[in-house]
Structure formats: structure tokens, C-alpha cells
Amino acid sequence: MKFTKLTVDGTYIIDLEKRGDERGSLTRIWCEKEFAENGIFATLRQGYSSTTKHKGTIRGIHCQVAPAAEDKLTRVVKGKIFEVIVDLRKDSPTFMKWEGVTLSAEDDKMMFIPSGVAHGFLTLTDDVVFENMSSQPFTPEYEKGIRYNDPAFNISWPIPVKHASQKDTSWQDYQPEGKAHIQEVPR
């Protein structure tokens, strides 16, 4: 695995090393020792696979906060996405910065996202399969989020957003000042 730091503090793109022969291939996607050698000390406890039918669908932008804050490891198994990370850690040197990376099933890359950094993605093809492993179980009462078109971040999406859930479009404008810097899940 090759680890490349992204602009948002603590985030990485991980190039996977596919080994193959006439039968097919084998790709290692997790090695606690190799991650630790690159300064990533995460324990993965839960994983999900999601499918998205249509190009132009947004999923996110979410994260969980303490005491259920989670590190994430993401990858695309089928299709192509534009994955966005947004630093919501007030004590981070990259607080309120965002970065977007195109990931596809063909590129053999993953993204590591530390706790306090929200993420979401926009599908660039139909029929996307996305995997997400995390260091904490999903705990809805600690989920926070921001809207994909929030003017506080001015995220530049590569194609128009055509499909979004009610939850993902109902977050209020982000307010970096004050007690609640990210809004709780709409109920």
C-alpha cells in the first residue's frame, strides 16, 4: 500500500497493490501494521456496502461526534464517485477546508478519513457500489451533517446534483461560531 497525504489534515489516499495471475487478483485492503507505520492508528469495527442506482446522486455530508466519533476507510467497488471531505475539527489547521477526490473501481484506491472530518460523495456513474469501514458502530444520536450546497464551504461538484435524500438537503446553514458548529440529525 502507498499512503499519500491529502490537504485536509490527517486524510490519505491509499493506493492498493493488486496482485494477479490468470485466475484473477488479490488486493489487500487492511493491514493494521502498515497503517500504523504511516501514523494511522485505527481499529475498524463496522463496515457497510451501499448501492446507488443513478449518476448525480449525493450521499452525505456526515460524520459522528464524541463519544461515537469515527475514523473511516472508504473505497469504490463498482462505478465512479467524487468523494468530498470537510474538516469540522475546530482545533485543526485545516478547519472548514474541503477537498474532493475522484475514486473509481478501476483505480484501486481507498480514502482514510479521521474522526471529525465529515464526508459524502456524488456518483459520477450509474450503479455505484461503495464500501465504508469505520472505527465505531453507527450511532444515529451522534450523527452530524452539513448540506452539500452550504455556502460556508462552496464545494465545487463536478456534475450537477440530481438526487438527494430529504435528510441530506435539510441541514441548516453551517455556523462555525457558537456552541453547535454542526447541526444534529433532523428528526
Summarize, please.
The chain has 2 helices and 14 strands.
Task: Give a description of the structure.
Helix content is 5%, strand content 41%. With 187 residues, the protein is mainly beta. A hairpin with a 6-residue loop joins β1 and β2. The model is unreliable at 178-187 (pLDDT under 50).
CATH superfamily: Jelly Rolls
Give the number of DSSP strands: 14
Strands of the widest sheet, in order across it, are 1-2-10-7-12-5
Computed Rg: 16 Å
The amount of helix comes to under 10%
* Series of secondary-structure elements, N-terminal to C-terminal: EEEEHEEEEEEEEEHE
**Separation of termini?**
41 Å
The geometry reads as globular
Total of helices: 2
CATH fold assignment = Jelly Rolls
CATH class: Mainly Beta
Strand content bin: 35-45%
**Integer average pLDDT:** 92
Main sheet overview: 6 strands, antiparallel
Unreliable stretches covering 5 or more consecutive residues: 178-187
Give me the CATH architecture, please.
Answer: Sandwich
Overall number of domains: 1
Secondary structure class reads: mainly beta
